[in-house]
Amino acid sequence: MVAEQAGRGAAVEAAARRHLESAGLRWLAGNVRYRGGELDLVMLDPAAGSLVFVEVRYRRHAMFGGGAASVDAGKRRRLLLAAQLYLSAHPQHAQSPCRFDVVEASGEPPRLNWLRDAFRADDC
């Protein structure tokens, strides 16, 4: 069951990456782990000149709330911490404007809903 969930998560993240790349974003990194937080996707939005930290949330059924609803205050703080650590480790991006997006996925096959600028650092 755990391996199946991990496989589903990887497939959904790959679909989200393809979706974002088809919209013009450029992939920089994925599944970046730090103590206290993880970044699913790190993308560059050349049109906006922004570094984009993307949280991918899959729900088999949307009836219990969409994926964005599961990105609560605690999750936002962990994402912010991971983003800060990423920027520290990649000084070439340290002065770039940043945003936090969420890609919700639900159903079989998963339908994607991209929420640009889903939350801001000062919301944490």
UniProtKB/TrEMBL annotation:
<comment type="similarity">
    <text>Belongs to the UPF0102 family.</text>
</comment>
<dbReference type="InterPro" id="IPR011335">
    <property type="entry name" value="Restrct_endonuc-II-like"/>
</dbReference>
<protein>
    <recommendedName>
        <fullName>UPF0102 protein ABB34_07540</fullName>
    </recommendedName>
</protein>
<dbReference type="InterPro" id="IPR011856">
    <property type="entry name" value="tRNA_endonuc-like_dom_sf"/>
</dbReference>
<dbReference type="Pfam" id="PF02021">
    <property type="entry name" value="UPF0102"/>
</dbReference>
<dbReference type="InterPro" id="IPR003509">
    <property type="entry name" value="UPF0102_YraN-like"/>
</dbReference>
<dbReference type="GO" id="GO:0003676">
    <property type="term" value="F:nucleic acid binding"/>
</dbReference>
